[in-house]
Amino acid sequence: METVRPMVVVPKEGKLRRKFAKVLNIHKLMGVAPEEEMKKIKFDSKTANLTESFYKLEEEYERSLALEALLAKLFATVSSIKAAYAQLQHCQSPYDSIGIQKSDNLVVAELKTLSELKQCFLKKQVDPNPERTLVLAEIQELRSLLKTYEIMGKKLESQYKLKDSEIVFLREKLDESMKQNKLTEKRLNQSGQLCNPLDNLHLSALNPTHFVTYLHHTVKSTRGFVKLMIEQMKTAGWDISSAASSIQPGVFYHKQDHKCFTFEHFVSNVMFEAFHLPYFSTSSNDSRSYKKKKQSKAEREMFFERFKELRSMKAKDYLTARPKSRFARFCRGKYLQLIHPKMEQAFFGHLHLRNQVSGGEFPETSLFSGFLEMAKRIWLLHCLAYSFEPEAEIFRVPKGCRFSEVYMKSVTEEAFFQASESSPESEPRVAFTVVPGFRIGKTSIQCEVYLSVS
Fold first, then answer.
1. What is the pTM for the complete model shown?
2. Domain identity same for 211 and 143
3. Which InterPro entries match (predicted)?
């Protein structure tokens, strides 16, 4: 009997060889390879191939995971260097020697970590626990980002404090400059070198420049009242766009804020209505006495004296002293015409103010105070207009007229830009007159208009 020699067992290929040898022995003995045995051999070969593929995939996954962990640690280290460098810059202003030393040590330590990572990559040293490294790297990066944002926040806060101190300093300088200007103005007034051109004015020295000066004051007060009225509309919940469209339908506004000019147009139309008639009166007797003949010097002196008298008083004081004067009737009529009952109901929830004005009283409200200031200036402008020989004439420009720099002045510049951009042939046209113009003899004072492109 032959002695059995022990066989060396190979992990992957040993079983396959033994089975193959067994089949060959059976084939030698019987001369035929059983079909079932052949199938087993084929199945075992497929299993071996799949096992090899699985091992290769697992090795590939482990390599990619280790590389991903290395990259994550690399980026986390770079983030730490950025945070340390930001801290280093922050400690330089204001100077902090201890903070600078700590930040410098941290930068050096992170640079050493980068060098170690480089050596690991070159020597192909695999991380034994890449999953844990990934989590720790993400935590490190988030902490570095948080630290960087904290430093940026501190920097912005210090800049804010610096700007705030600059603002305080500039405000102090502004207050000081304003006080100095007031003192200088006071000294000039006392010495007679600076004064209002309408002060100490005599009828013989009256010229169109004085009228233009007071017209500017009048327009300023009108716009102040319009601003008050729009604020009341917004408080009452009115749709400003719809209200503007009801006054001037079909107008294209270059900006949303330009709709305030529509309300100024409406207020000016009401307040300057009958400006060409004496005392704003539509009475046939007043019209006939002033239209059929030239104004005498006495009549011009009368208007000029009334201008100086009312100009030196507050409107409320004048109305209290003379409740039945022409100016009082003018204020009552214009207020009732300008503030519609529905408007007053929406503004105040009642019609008490309207009833007070109709009864000859003058209520104490911000809206009515603004109205009185505007009414006073328009009335004074009318008195000044009738102090000229010949008197100043008012004019407005109809809608759709071509723009003329001689007689008109645009309240905005957007229409000219839009006209040049759309086509060279298009030109701005008058949408409506905001402030009327005037003629004094051969002198023309431009009216202010809102323009749109035709």
1. 0.57
2. no
3. DUF641_pln, GIL1-like, GIL1_IRKI_C
